[in-house]
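Annex B.
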Amino acid sequence: MANKLQATGNLGPSVVKALLDAGFTVTALTRADSTSTVLAGAKVHKTDYSSHSSILEAFKGQDAVVSTIATAALGQQQGDC
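NAD(P)-binding domain-containing protein: predicted structure tokens.
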């Protein structure tokens, strides 16, 4: 199946599990300094969210992006990218 790009957080694990169960290849973006864990079966891409080139590199080869960013966190996620 197609590749999906998936962030982690409060909702992320449920979404990752559903995508994995459906047979998708899942790549989870995490902050470069994150110690968070991702469900077994998902790939992890450590990303510097303040770096445009890091974000572009993370998106290479992905067919879709599924974002589970909470509305309250949007301000923290926006930057120069």
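DSSP finds three helices and four strands in the chain. The beta strands are 3-7, 25-31, 43-47, 64-66. Further annotation is deferred to the next reporting cycle.
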